Every structure is written in structure tokens, then in C-alpha cells.
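Re: [help] complex structure
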Amino acid sequence: MSTLALDRLERAIEAVSAVPDPEIPVVSIADLGMVRAVRVAADGVVEVDLSPTYTGCPATRLIGEEVRAAIEAAGLGTPRIRFLTSPAWTTDWITPEGLAALERYGIAPPPRRADPDAPVACPRCGSTDTEEISRFGSTPCKALWRCRSCGEPFDRFKCL
Amino acid sequence: MTTIRVEETPHLAYVLRLADSALVLSHRLSEWCGHAPMLEEDLALTNIALDLLGQARLLYEHAATLEGKGRSEDDFAYLRDAPQFRNLLICELPRGDFAFTIVRQTFFSAFFHPFWQLARSSTDRTLAGIAEKAEKEVAYHLRHAGAWLVRLGDGTEESRRRTLEAVDALWPYTGEFFEVDEVGETMIEAGIAPDPASLRPSFEDTLERLFAEADLPRPALTWMQTGGLRGVHTEHLGHMLAVMQHLPRAYPGALW
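Output below.
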């Protein structure tokens, strides 16, 4: 790959990685593990492969548009964006930085798939004396929980 | 706006069946928006509706590619009449009360969870990809419906009575899950579709476990309804489509 192409690729990766999730703007789509690949094709067009989280998530289309806008704003032209259903997105792809950012924002991060019943710590006071209120929450990716220690309700990222 | 005509090859017909079932059930669930017995369930039912809508969209997109006539997912959803819909009849029945919805979700998810699990190894790679995502979503739907079935069945006299009525009303519609016609046979032979007969043990085990926990008698063998796969529907689908399709038919190409 030429230095020029490599430079384009680096700038494309940087631009895509910085796109925030529309619903949870404290994490980027890269931290959520939605960016599967960024390439510069033979014809010079930037190609981005994304994994949607939930099939019906209304943010999916917006994310595609924001990725396109970010690539264009970086002066890299209009990209080709693909949404891949396979392999299916999993919360295990959320980076450690993403998990930490979720928690700081007040959303309890999802457990790892290998340990789905791990105790859930309240993102406000840290107590694990918590209970599920509803399996579904304000977006497809979250459930509603409550802390029995500090009394605060909170969102929890569902394990998928 | 004119109704489209779809030349249904077995493969296209099969994908449309899955898409139609997901869309029609999604619409019925979305009717709970603002009407569920509590806020949490309003969120839950509409979230499940959203997952099913997402699955339907991917399946219609796939159908459009298979057909190769440049149609969109919206054309399939909005520009076909009831006899062209291929959904399972259980999906189109009016939403009923909360017990009815929970029992329907239990039956539907108890079948479609193992269905999508097996469909992950379909020779149709697009379908297999959709299955990978759908399987995870339906597993969650099943846990939700199952937990409510137990709470309602083993709850108050009133919740139990309503749940039993819903089981009686819905059970005759579960036979369609296992129906295999020529389209189904062709798809099973091609390795595109799982053989529903192989899903029966898993379906039965799930219900056995949930009904025991809910202290409900297992539904008895009965005569089973049929027709959806051939486009022979209950009187309810046409009314539902009239609501669902009104806007795009009255204002063709309307966008917002």
C-alpha cells in the first residue's frame, strides 16, 4: 500500500472511530464494537463495515449517515458503508474503555457473555444490592434496574 | 396506489412467509403502545415489536434481492393485499388482553427460538446472517414472555382465568408452525430451511417447563387451524392492513 493510501486509511479510521453513538453519546461506535473494518478500496473509496446492535434499532440508519458525514468531513470522499448481520454483534465487543465510559455515564455495563449472572453494581453508589425492574428499557440495548442501597433507578446494558 | 404482483418462487415465498409473520406480529405488539398495563410493559412490548420489525426489514430486503425487480422492503409491506400475505395466522389475531399477548408471545418465541438457532446453518447465507441476530433477540423475548406466563398462570384467580382462556383460543393456531407444504419441502431439501419437525422436541420442552412452573394444564390435542401460508387469512388481517397501509397507499411515496 502506498504512503498516500496508508495516510487515507489512517485518517478514515480516525474519523470513523470518533463518531459517537447517537443514543449514548459518551461512547463512540468504535468503543461499542460496531466498527468491524475500515478499508481503502482499489478505486480509492473508503469502505466501512458496521455491525448493527439490534436489528430494529432506529439509530442504525443515523449511525450510517454520521459515518458517511465523518468520512466526508475528513476530506476522504463518500464512503461505501455495509451493515453486516454476521457475525452478529455482541456486547462482548464493547471495549474496556467503552465499558468504563458507560459506567461513568450512569449505565451499568453489560456482563460478559461467559458470566451473564454476575452481580450488577449500581453505577452511582457501587452497591451490588440491586434488582431488575424491567427486562426492557428506553432503548433496545438497555434494561431498567434499581439500587436497593441508594434507591436510585438506573439503566443497564443488556447482555447480547 | 396499485397493488404489486409478486411471482413467488419457492425461495421468495419462503422468505416472505418469515418476513410477513415478523411484520404482522410486530404491528400487533405495537398496538400496545400507550395501552399496556404498566409503563415497563409498554416499553417491553414495543421493544419486542421493534426487534421483530428489524427482522422483517432484513427479510424483506432479502426478498427484494431474490426477486431482483428493484422493489423495496416498503413495497412488500405496504403494496400487497391480505391474500398475498403469507404470515402465520397466530400473528394476525387481534391483540386481545395482556394474557392473550403473553400466551401468543410464549408460543411464537418457543417455536422461533430453536427455529433461528437452526437457521444459522442455512445454505442461504443471508438468511443465516439474519438468523444469527434474530436468535439472540428471540431468546430474550422468550425469557420475558415465559416469566409473565408463570406470573399470570400462577397469579390471581382472574389472571389465571384469562391465561387459560388465551391458551384455549391460541393453541389451535400452533399447528401452522409445523406445517410443511411444497415450498417448505423444497426449502428443506435445499438446506435453506430447518425442518420444523426437528424443532418439535425443543418447542414441547419449553412449554412443558413453563406450563409446569405456571401450574397450568398443558393444552390438549385439538384440531389445528391452517391457511396463512396459502394466503387464506382470518377476517382480522384485512382490517389490520387497512390501518397499517393506509398512509403509503393514500399518499404514495410520502416521506417524513
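Chain B touches chain A through 29 residues (CB under 8 Å).
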